TrEMBL record:
Organism: Micromonospora parastrephiae
Residues in Pyrrolo-quinoline quinone repeat domain copies: 89-229
Residue ranges of the region described as Disordered: 1-24
Protein name as annotated: PQQ-binding-like beta-propeller repeat protein
């Protein structure tokens, strides 16, 4: 911006014009400062947001876990893929704090964080007779602590429940102290299966469903039997599928097609009704969401079983706060989903959030959506079910996918397998 001095307008007929006031000292300096301030403001407005970015090395076939201020990478050995090396990075700086070799081999892996321990689970162990095996390492130091058969489930009191067997093998349960693997209680292996009731970060109740015999509700912390009952239909016949949803035990029968609901603590019968084929039942807050292959989604009143609403528009639905997030049934087979916000009591559509792929997120983490940007990289947005808004955060130029979100942080994989850590605004 330039300033042009046009001088002063004078009336030529004025016989005694007033003297011109002196020009203030420093005016050119002030004009230059104003010009610099304007240019700086325009430059700041046009500049892209500053990103705090950290690169974390990982292979394409690595298993990873974002756990608070740690990022855990389980890399395969290029010469022997059944062997793994675990490296832990401290966030947000990305410093490698420890590394260790996992002392078992296998083909399928997983990482769980429980009560100060990192558990590495081998689901297809190469050790004869071991089956699924979990190995515990100290979260802060990487020191080896213990290993035991079974896959881990975190309990509400901080105990680790190890479940072994399944499919054609008897199922065994063992609750252990995470610090040292000391067994607190265990049950003998039985045929059948177990379903769990989660509260916040862990499980507080278990429902043991044997092939024959009564169903048992157990306290997960102690293994004590809280309730026992024969839930088979009158006159005998198969029990059906048992699920635990929202402090209720659901028995879904196929012949005839029925759903019967019991209280979790005492197995007291609440209500029963006919149903078409049910693929799964979802916790939708004040209602039960029944997803059926031919009849779409039905929402039933928790207390009475009466249908509150139904729709064939939604591919899937899940509870998020006091709202429901749903995906349109006509969404393509890609990872992108057309996301909407629903009122759980009426099924009314409250907001349209657009097409997004949801980043993995833990309990209490924000809901983050990503999608490919036309110019490359990933567009990132925070999805707010309460306000019904998708708030754009950034475009990550070299991110490819496999994103994991936590409070204030987003990790996304690059095409070479490494990860980039982006600090997200509040």
């Amino acid at each position: 911006m330039s300033i042009i001095d046009l001088g002063e307008l004078r009336h030529t007929s004025d016989p005694d014009p007033l003297p011109r006031p002196p020009r203030a000292d420093g005016r050119p300096v002030r004009c230059a400062l104003v010009l610099l301030l304007v240019l700086a403001t325009l430059a700041a407005a046009a500049a892209p947001p500053r990103r705090d970015v950290v690169t974390l090395p990982a292979q394409l076939a690595a298993d990873t876990l974002l756990d608070g201020d740690l990022f855990v990478v389980l890399d395969p050995n290029p010469a022997q893929p059944t062997q793994r090396r675990m490296t832990v990075f401290r966030l947000p700086g990305g410093k490698a704090v420890w590394q260790t070799r996992v002392p078992v081999e296998g083909r399928s892996w997983g990482i769980t964080s429980v009560a100060g321990m990192l558990l590495v689970t081998v689901y297809e162990s190469n050790m004869p007779g071991q089956g699924t095996l979990s190995v515990a390492f100290d979260r802060e130091t990487g020191a080896y602590r213990w290993q035991q058969p079974g896959s881990p489930i975190e309990l509400a009191d901080g105990t680790v429940l190890l479940q072994s067997g399944g499919e054609d093998e008897p199922v065994g349960l063992r609750a252990v102290d995470p610090c040292c693997g000391t067994v607190r209680w265990q049950s003998r292996a039985t045929t059948g299966y177990t379903v769990f009731h989660e509260v916040g970060h862990g499980v507080d109740r278990m429902v043991v469903v044997p092939v024959d015999g009564p169903v048992e509700v157990r306290d997960a912390a102690t293994g004590a039997v809280l309730a026992r009952g024969d839930l088979r239909p009158p006159g005998g016949g198969p029990l059906g599928l048992v699920q635990v949803v929202n402090h209720l035990v659901l028995v879904i029968g196929e012949a005839p097609a029925t759903i019967t609901v019991y209280g979790l603590d005492r197995l007291d019968r609440r209500w029963s009704g006919t149903a078409g084929r049910i693929d799964f039942v979802q916790d939708c807050g004040p209602v039960l969401c029944l997803q059926t292959r031919f009849n779409g989604l039905r929402a039933l009143d928790l207390a009475t079983g009466q249908m509150r609403w139904r729709s064939d528009r939604w591919r899937w639905v899940f509870r998020y706060g006091d709202r429901l997030m749903a995906s349109r049934a006509n969404s393509s087979g890609s990872a992108l989903e057309q996301l909407v916000v629903l009122d759980p009591l009426t099924g009314r559509e409250l907001a349209e959030l657009g097409r997004w792929e949801l980043a993995q997120s833990g309990f209490g983490s924000p809901l983050v959506g990503v999608r490919r940007h036309p110019d490359g990289g990933l567009l990132v947005a925070r999805l707010d079910a309460r306000t019904g808004e998708a708030r754009m955060l950034d475009v990550l130029p070299d991110a490819a996918g496999n994103c994991q979100a936590s409070v204030g942080r987003l990790l996304c994989q690059r095409v070479d397998g490494s990860y980039r850590l982006f600090l997200m605004p509040d």
